Amino acid sequence: MENSMLQYYRAIGQIQNVISNASSLDEALQGGLKAIVDNAGAESGVIWYVDKAGDGKLHPYFWIGPVDLTSRSHAPGDGAVGRVFESQRAERLFEFDALQDVETAIDFAGMDVKSVVCVPFSNNFEDLGVIQFVNRADGELFTDEAADVMEIMAMMAAIALGENESIAAPWQPGEIVMQLRDITREFQNGDIVTKVLKGVNLDVYEGEFLVLLGESGCGKSTLLNIIGGMDSATSGEFSYLGQDLSHATQEELTEFRRDNVGFIFQSYNLMPNLTALQNLKLIAELVKEPMDADEALEIVGLEDRKRNYPSQMSGGQQQRVSIARALVKNPKVILADEPTAALDYATSIEVLQVMEEVVKGGTTMVMVTHNEEITRMADRVVRMRDGRMHEVTVNRHPAHATDLVW
Ligand SMILES: Nc1ncnc2c1ncn2[C@@H]1O[C@H](COP(=O)(O)OP(=O)(O)O)[C@@H](O)[C@H]1O
Ligand SMILES: [Mg+2]
Hints:
Layout: H1 4-21, H2 25-40, E1 42-50, E2 58-64, H3 79-87, E3 91-93, H4 102-107, E4 116-122, E5 127-136, H5 144-161, E6 176-189, E7 192-205, E8 209-213, H6 220-227, E9 235-240, E10 243-244, H7 250-260, E11 261-264, H8 276-284, H9 293-299, H10 315-327, E12 333-337, H11 345-360, E13 364-369, E14 380-385, E15 388-394
Parallel strand pairs: 8-13, 8-14, 11-12, 12-13
Antiparallel strand pairs: 1-2, 1-5, 2-15, 3-4, 4-5, 6-7, 6-9, 9-10, 14-15
Helix pairs in contact: 1-2, 1-5, 2-5, 8-9, 8-10, 9-10, 10-11
């Protein structure tokens, strides 16, 4: 590593900066991890934090990378992460062998794991956990020199955090509703093949508000369409409540989405010649166990608008009717693709408030957006980049829709 001392001092400065400017412990840990992963040139990085007040295991608190670690954990001594926590000595698996470390292989299933470094995350007062690095972003293997720097960076981050705050309990994920493994999607036009999704590994948990964030064109809608059974992956596995739908026929997918999934789009797609109530009743007739249409309109606060046609309502009201239309199916999951992109700020907040209520009522929500501020109200945020998951974060204190400002 050329100029390694200079690089090292720069990294330490950045980490200290990020941590001292953070407004919460979560922000400090997340920002600190980003700075460490960037400086280490790693593809993936994880802060495993020990839950001393709870089950005594190491849980992933923040991570960067293309896999979903949400429900993974390690007891001290269990796998490289557990061993490093117990011994407080780094492990350098420069040429990773899945057979020698099955735990790590399971954590990162779906990723081509080549090189792993686990370093203790401890300050003078206590052992907080372990920071794990997986793969160099450039495809090379980690080196001893790089691992030395990672160790020092982790130590500096732990010291900068100090002893003053303790972290919130780990998030307890519900049952897995949808599971995606190694999902790819290619589109072929003539001789040209466009790879849009390049291996997505994601779980959707019961009752969560999951937000998919990413720039235009990164594959959010393509992914949402696969989750909702509107499109099929080119390769990979997709299951709903344990039922494998990877090779489902068109008819099976149609049945799946009719019975289980509600959709909300940027454009409201209401039938113009039907009233709000009629728009809902039309859908209620198609499904097995619909919610009462009047009740659905009440939830979105439009009971007094039920005889209005779409043209007699504002954009925000029409979007609320379309939320009610999704609700009337009584679906387990609602998928929303940029539902506020066409709305002004005040109207967006109104619509997001309704979505917050819907999640509170027990419906699982997956929402796509390119608005960073909206991520604050999610339980979990998946940041996508160029057809891959880049970062998954759990919000332990989600904001209310009414707290959002942009
Ligand atoms: N049917 C298709 N044929 C070819 N390319 C497509 C098709 N659908 C989407 N794409 C391409 O896939 C990429 C991702 O699209 P999309 O999932 O809509 O992105 P996002 O929702 O993140 O803006 C874009 O470059 C888009 O042009
Ligand atoms: Mg889109």
